[in-house]
Every structure is written in structure tokens, then in C-alpha cells.
Amino acid sequence: MSTSHNEAPTRTVDVDGTAFAYRELGTGSGVPVILLHHFTAVLDDWDPAVVDGLAAERRVILVDLRGVGATGGSTPDSVEAMAADAVAFVRALGLATVDLLGFSLGGMVAQAFVRQEPDLVRRLILAGTSPAGDAGPANAFPVLQEAIEKATGAGKHPKHFLFFSPTETSQAAADAFLGRLEQRTADRDPAATNETIGAQVTALAKWERSSTPAGLANVSQPVLVVNGDNDVMIPTISSFTLARALPNARLSIYPDSGHGALFQHHELFVRQALDFLRD
Amino acid sequence: MSTSHNEAPTRTVDVDGTAFAYRELGTGSGVPVILLHHFTAVLDDWDPAVVDGLAAERRVILVDLRGVGATGGSTPDSVEAMAADAVAFVRALGLATVDLLGFSLGGMVAQAFVRQEPDLVRRLILAGTSPAGDAGPANAFPVLQEAIEKATGAGKHPKHFLFFSPTETSQAAADAFLGRLEQRTADRDPAATNETIGAQVTALAKWERSSTPAGLANVSQPVLVVNGDNDVMIPTISSFTLARALPNARLSIYPDSGHGALFQHHELFVRQALDFLRD
């Protein structure tokens, strides 16, 4: 294997009659890491610095869940259904054990995944996410709309406001991150549709309204919980709450950063993630 | 230099007429790390696994502050005065720049140190500690008394209850930690006196009553904040609050552990600390 994030071909695998798009790269005979994407994201929204960093030691698999990017079907409107799709995707690839890196909505999907199929999961990295029932995710749509308005006025990308802090250093990191997302030129993934975004918004709102912290105390897997210290999408305190609710979680909060802390501090994040995943 | 924690000789340096006891070990031409001790601690309360781990890459200096262990004088009853002593000690050694690792009370001393002499400090590691004004430290004495009673009843060391979680894994880590503290046989440091402990209790209570978060927003140095997820001495949430108040702090919370998380998870802590201190 090996290759790089910007050159890995988009492949498909049949998942119960639907073609799921994914890319695979990296090295090593260890357990592969499955990357579960954020709200509105497709394969090209993963930071090449993070993907290539992880791929230096691990086999890395990025996937578009149902209805997302080049994957067929309609996006379901619950985290649980998304997790069932992710499980089916992992099985379709014939994998017996995986690590999961879930970012934001993907972190919720990862939590539901490990509850549904604990034996499939070795370790989890949960970035910029929250346990079910915590306030925050239901605001994703108004927060997104406000960011789009601000971004249009300022001639910037909404992610400047959604994923980064207002500080000069964090905004410069946003520019660098957005530049990296443009590096891949061939075989780019279609953007998320409004239908998909609508279903994801519903799933996020249901996650927040869910009253169960949903068995986190039974997750025996080691977990690394990560966020920036100033997340306006999923409040940073939710990462603290999430780590406390898990019996075996390390928490890492990064300075001067927001929801996209793993991208802003990609070198530190990759070092900590590889350290955590190392056998 | 080099040598090991268990073999480093205890030296003294004159600090304005008082002999301060310290030990030095380690390697490298980088900025030395000064270790600032916890409530009731003397030189022999530092975990050899942590000290030797840091000393693999850094020059490490452990010190008994005024009135503590083999150091002369009477322990002052405020964190600010302890910090002034620590500053004077660093100057007496002729050091122009240092890194600080402060644990618990030592973490408060480190915060006061960097406010008093910001130009002396390059980076800070604050373990199991709190910002001024946060609830918790004033209970140190009743918490200590209760732990002594429980320990006497259970035939255990109070640190089993003060520094570790009640889980089987954390209690086993307590045994291992306490075993490491006994490894040094020659030239052991005198235990803290009741007079010293009394002054430290007063200092902790004043720290909690202090209303100022005391200029943390002006600390421009990089900081690594560390604690266990279940600290009964300085509540874990204070580490979260502390990291948020600092403009450039990484936060690391470790699973299944208490106040002494840096000792329980000494391998992980040393990796993260060396990564953080690396130039």
C-alpha cells in the first residue's frame, strides 16, 4: 500500500447493494484506522497532513457514509443508522478489527459503532465531539448558517469561523488547512448535497435530545478524546464530559484552537494519535 | 552529569543565607527543568520513574523549598513567598532560563513563579493543580486526615487514597509507585515537619480564597496541564479551568487515575512531557 492522501484512488465496495466510496493508504500490518467524517464533509475534507501523518505508521481508510460524496443511497437521519452503515462497510471490507477516528458527527458515529459492535473495535479516537444528551450539536445548522454569512461578508471560507479560533495564529492555521484541502486535484469527491446535510442536521439534533449517555461506561476500549480549547460547534466541555464518562479515556485539549484542533495542531495530534494507537 | 534519581547526591546552595537542598541529574544542553514539590513532600517523594524519564533528555533539578526536608529556614505560609524562594534558588544556581514542573502545591508555586519572573521561565508543566480561587486546595488538611485514618484501618499508605483511584488497576499502580519511592537507600531526605505542613495548609487555603485568577491570561509561555480523571485532592475540573485560562496550554487528562496520575501513567507522562519540552 502506502501512496498519499492526495493520490489515493477512490474505490468502491458493495455494502448490501449500495456502492460505498472509500480511499485507502498507509503502511504496517497493524489494525487499520477507519476515519469517520464530520457534518457536511466528504473524503476531500480530511486534512492531508493528518491522513498522511497517520499513514506513516498505520493503514488508513477514509469512507463516505451512505448518501455522502460519491457513496450511493440516502443519508439516514440518525447516528445509530449511520453507525450501522459504518459497521456494514467494515464488514464488507472483510476486516475483523479496526480502530476508529471519528471527528465531530463522525465521533458520535464512532460511539454508536462501538456500542453496536464492541468486538470489531480495538481503540477509538474521538475528536471535537460530544456524548449523547450534551447540549451543542442541535445548533449545528444555525451555527453553520451564521458562519456562512460571516464568511461571505469577510470573503473567507466558513471553516475559518467553524473550525478555528478568532486569533491571528488560529486564522493563519485556517488558511494553511484550507490550502492543504485544495492540494488534491484529480478524482475529487462530490460535495455533500442539501438532502444529506438535512438528514445530518436531524441526526445531530436527535443525538443532543437523546437522554441516554448510552453505555459509555461499558466501553472498555482505550479512547483518546481530543478537541481545541475554544470549540464553537461542540462545546469543549463536552470533550471533558465524554472522557470522564469513559472508563479508559485519555483527554487532550489543544491551545488557541477550535473544533478543527486536530487539523490546526496536526503535528501534535498525529504524534499523540500514533502514540495512542501504537501496539 | 547524568546519574539516576536514586543515586544523585543531595547538594546545597546558599540562598540569601539559607542552605537549600537540591539534587541534580540528567543530560543535554537544553534548558533545565526545576521540579517543584507537592504538599508534605520532600526530595524522596518524586517518582524515580518520572525523574529518570525526564533526565533521559533534560537536565533535571529537584529542590526542597524553604523549611522542607533538608533545606533550612521555616516554610512560609503563602504560595507567593514560596515562589519568591524558588526564584531565589534558581538565581543562586546561576540559571538564566528554566522550565518548571510543579505538582499540586508545586504547580501553584510555578504559577506564582512565572508571574513574578516571567523572563526566567521558558515552559511550564502543571500537574494536579488549580488556578488561584478554585475550590479544593483548602480541604487538603481534612482530606489528608481522612486518608491517614482510612490508610491506618486498611494497612495501607495514605497515598493509596490521596493520589490514586479506588479501582484495582490504580491501586496496583499505587503499590508500584510506593515501591519505587523506597528504592533510594542512601542519603534520604528528612520528612516534612508538622510546622512545615501547617504552613503549607495555610498557603493552600489562601490560594483557594484568593479571588484573582492572577494574570494567567498574561502567561505567554507554553504550558502543559496534566491530571488524572478522578482527583480527590484538587478536583480534575480545575485542570480544565486552568488550561482554559492560559492562552497557550495543552491539557492532558489520564484515565483511571487520581492526583498522582503523572506517577501512575509515568511512561505516558514522560513521553508527553519530553515532547512538550523538546526544542
From TrEMBL, chains A, B:
Pfam families: Abhydrolase_1 (PF00561)
Gene3D superfamilies from the UniProt entry: alpha/beta hydrolase
GO molecular function, one term: catalytic activity
Organism superkingdom: Bacteria
Residues that span the membrane, as ranges: none
Domain AB hydrolase-1 span(s) in chain numbering: 32-265
Alphabetical list of SUPFAM superfamilies matching this protein: alpha/beta-Hydrolases
Name under which the protein is recorded: AB hydrolase-1 domain-containing protein
